[in-house]
Amino acid sequence: MKNRQGIEFLQHFSGARVAVVGDVMLDIYLWGQVSRISPEAPVPVVNVNRRTSCLGGAANVMRNLRTLGAAAFAYGVVGNDNLGRELAENLRELGIDDSGLFFDDARRTTEKRRVVAGSQQLLRIDVEDTFEVDDSIRRKIVDGVISRIRAKELDAVIFEDYNKGLLSAWMLEEIICAAREHNVITALDPKPGSLAPVKGLSVMKPNRVEAFALAGMADDNSMCDVRDNSLLAQVAEKLLDTWEPDLLLLSLASQGMALFRRGQEVEVIPTRAREVFDVSGAGDTVTATYTVSAISGAPARTAAEIANRAAGVVVGKVGTAPILFDELIKSFDSEE
Which of 34, 97, 132, 298 sees the fewest Cβ atoms within 10 Å? Predict the structure, then answer.
């Protein structure tokens, strides 16, 4: 994509309306410095001087939607605890509609706690419950999303699956059915082993590891040209046959992205990252940016290229950081 090609679609981002259904999390960062090794064990002692929190998981997709200028509607579950209330407050501060966020006394809010010294992440601690969410809550979420679809209040629904217990196949099937009736885009960022195949998605966006796992195939980790990678092509064909999405968009790390469609040659979008400090949340940025670009009328390849630009920006930041609209605009002025 040439420097300015595709930029015209960005002006329509502010009109996009997207519901995100998935596993919301709170990312917590403990920032500090290391000056010595512990006498108790051969580990660094971090003198923590500040704590920050930000939206993670499905909530990070919502954050990216808002920083791109789109309207975001949150559908998920948190614990009835202080972290759940902090997460909800973070949503509201960004102008995200949290009326579809449910507080569950039976579970804890998913927390990803990272210890960072300077710009180096030393440790991540996960606190979470992964048992299935009660079907009564799931039913409220599905009914809420479908109600918005039928009221013509949504342009897209994104399903963000981190295998934390919220999503189930029947939820996606009901929402996808309503979405297709009303020409609403549906996108899935899948997690292997979580869902049975669901048909009818507009776009499915796994990364390479997830794609091979979903297809039940072993990755040979070949770095040959994507167009010549017959094993990757077999994986894509299997996912297209099993899940039947309209499009399959694979994130391939340093090899960029690959767009697969039935009966067509693979389209490869080379990576645009200049410096990589932290890949946390990059997939969320891709999903959000691709979806908003598609809503704004961008053809599939152009939407993927715009999303690729966004990913190239966020991996140059430390921590889980969203793409800002002005940063995306600026990326079009950079050298190819």
Answer: 132
**Coil, strand or helix at 221:** coil
Average pLDDT over residues 253-266: 91
Sort 187 into a burial class: Cβ within 10 Å, 0-12 / 13-18 / 19+: buried
Position 224 pLDDT exceeds 90: no
pTM summary value = 0.92
Q: What is the DSSP letter of 322?
A: P
Identify the CA nearest to 214 among candidates 223, 226, 201, 225. Answer: 201
Q: Which residues pair with 267 in a beta bridge?
A: 259
Catalytic residues: 284
Handedness of CA 237, 239, 243, 249 (dihedral sign): negative
CA angle (332, 74, 304) in 5-degree steps: 30
Q: Which contacts qualify for 81-86: CB closer than 8 Å, 24 or more apart?
A: 81/108, 81/109, 83/26, 83/108, 83/109, 83/111, 84/109, 86/26, 86/53
What distance in Å separates the CA atoms of residue 130 and residue 144, rounded to the nearest whole number? Answer: 23
Residue 91 CA neighbour count, 13 Å, CB half: 29
- If pLDDT is split at 50, 70 and 90, which confidence band does 319 have? low
Q: CA end-to-end span of the chain, whole Å?
A: 9
DSSP string, 115-136: EEETTEEEEEEEE---SPPPHH
| C-alpha torsion sign, points 20, 25, 30, 36 | negative
User: Taking the mean position of all CA atoms in its chain, how far away is CA 202?
Assistant: 15
- Number of helical (H) and strand (E) elements in the chain, helices listed first: 9, 13
What is the rounded CA–CA span in Å between residue 20 and residue 59?
8
29 neighbors 116 (Cβ within 8 angstroms): yes
CB of 211 within 8 A of CB of 250?
A: yes
Quick: pLDDT tens for 283-299: 899 999 999 999 999 99
Q: Are 59 and 76 in contact (CB under 8 A)?
A: yes
Tell me: the pLDDT tens digits for 161-201?
Answer: 999 999 999 999 999 999 999 999 999 999 999 999 999 99
